[in-house]
């Protein structure tokens, strides 16, 4: 019997020479994890790093698949949430992997969202000076962004993601079906990163999303296609600039304003989650570009209209609760970025699909723009 089309995984390759790897995208790929890992890493044992929420929903399927492929595994269940991106959780993970007597040729598998992937990837890079690493992202954000490209790390008292390494996985398995169990707010927030790829350099993709977003949300082939196009877009940028010496910074479109807003809310996820900060940030980046006469007001309005239709916030005023003033927001931006003689680096745009890295944005213009935004 032929398999229905939506169950045939799409493969996207990240081409990095001898460190190249596949991303398999499709409904049900979680159940084939054992076979895919055994084929690429014969004889391996596995430590699955996950959190207690994801473990309850998806660990049994993964464990069955590993067992059926003859792979011996142990599971490390961390507390869910951003607090697990910490030195303490890293130590717990490293100790558990060593306690299970896994060796350098064995494999750490991240089963979870961005927090688990970033932490597990860091652990895989340092235990015994580097074990194999496989990503099984279970959130939309992790499937289209954080599981691809090799950025791993934890947060420190000085800020987010400040201790870490580049560590490319050997394989990424993005099961589009597991996204059915995500809370709607989390799926919407992940969608901001999907829209980002259209806004960076693919106006055709943004247009496709404007027409097809409903089906991306409901699941099926359109969802797999959106994830595959996002992964292809990210892979292409990572292949050209793995260590972010230039072009990879484009992936931060919307993140400069977004990170500042996340920091200003004290990373309170009840008020703002990362993807929502990125949505507001992308809308602001387009409005700011229009304000600087780089892009048209119509394009900025089109971006806002699409994100609003999805149910994402696009204005600072949509964040519930009190926020600090424009000067304080600018100081959060300055903390996040290098400031060189009063100038900031921003991702700006000449229109939909035409983002660019601007290294010389005067802080005074950013401040004036933020004041305008807060007065609205
Ligand atoms: N999430 C941004 C990057 O991977 O470079």
Q: How far from one another are the termini? A: 59 Å
Please count the beta strands (DSSP E, at least 2 residues each). 12
Q: Choose one word for the global shape.
A: globular
Give me the CATH fold name of the largest domain.
Dehydroquinate synthase-like, alpha domain
- The helix-and-strand class reads alpha/beta
Attached small molecules: glycine
Give a quick precis of the structure.
With 376 residues, this protein is an alpha/beta fold. Helix content is 47%, strand content 19%. The radius of gyration is 20 Å and the shape is globular.
Question: Any overview of this molecule?
Answer:
With 376 residues, the chain is α/β, with parallel strands linked by helices. The chain has two domains: 10-181, Rossmann fold (3-Layer(aba) Sandwich); 184-374, Dehydroquinate synthase-like, alpha domain (Up-down Bundle). Helices cover 47% and strands 19% of the residues. The chain contains 13 helices and twelve strands. The strands form three sheets. The chain has a seven-stranded mixed sheet with strand order 1-2-9-6-5-3-4. It has a three-stranded antiparallel sheet with strand order 10-11-12. A two-stranded antiparallel ribbon has the order 7-8. Helix 6 runs antiparallel to helix 7. The longest helix has 20 residues, at 221-240. The protein is globular.
């Amino acid at each position: 019997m032929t398999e229905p089309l939506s169950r045939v995984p799409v493969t996207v390759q990240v081409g990095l020479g001898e460190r190249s790897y596949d991303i398999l995208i499709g409904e049900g790929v979680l159940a084939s994890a054992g076979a895919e890992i055994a084929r690429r890493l014969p004889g391996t044992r596995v430590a699955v790093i996950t959190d207690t929420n994801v473990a309850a929903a998806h660990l049994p399927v993964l464990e069955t698949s590993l067992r059926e492929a003859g792979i011996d595994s142990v599971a490390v269940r961390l507390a869910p949430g951003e607090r697990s991106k910490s030195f303490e959780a890293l130590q717990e993970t490293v100790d558990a992997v060593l306690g299970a007597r896994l060796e350098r040729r064995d494999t750490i598998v991240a089963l979870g969202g961005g927090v688990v992937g970033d932490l597990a990837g860091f652990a895989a890079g340092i235990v015994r000076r580097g074990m194999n690493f496989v990503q099984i992202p279970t959130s939309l954000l992790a499937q289209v962004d954080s599981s691809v490209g090799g950025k791993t790390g934890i947060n420190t008292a000085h800020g987010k993601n400040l201790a870490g390494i580049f560590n490319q996985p050997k394989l990424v398995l993005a099961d589009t079906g597991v996204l059915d169990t995500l809370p709607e707010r989390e799926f919407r927030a992940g969608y901001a990163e999907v829209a980002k790829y259209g806004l960076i350099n693919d106006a055709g993709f943004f247009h496709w999303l404007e027409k097809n977003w409903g089906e991306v949300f409901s699941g099926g082939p359109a969802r797999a296609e959106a994830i595959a196009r996002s992964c292809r877009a990210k892979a292409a940028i990572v292949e050209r600039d793995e260590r972010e010496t230039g072009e990879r910074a484009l992936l931060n479109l919307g993140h400069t304003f977004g990170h500042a807003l996340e920091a200003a809310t004290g990373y309170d996820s009840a008020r703002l989650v990362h993807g929502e900060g990125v949505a507001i940030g992308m809308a602001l980046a387009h409005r700011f570009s229009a304000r600087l006469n780089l892009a048209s007001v119509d394009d900025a309005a089109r971006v806002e209209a699409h994100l609003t239709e999805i149910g994402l916030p696009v204005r600072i005023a949509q964040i519930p609760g009190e926020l600090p003033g424009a000067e304080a927001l600018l100081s959060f931006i300055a903390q996040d970025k290098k400031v060189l003689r009063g100038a900031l680096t921003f991702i700006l745009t000449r229109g939909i699909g035409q983002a660019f890295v601007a290294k010389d944005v005067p802080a005074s213009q950013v401040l004036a723009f933020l004041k305008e935004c807060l007065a609205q």
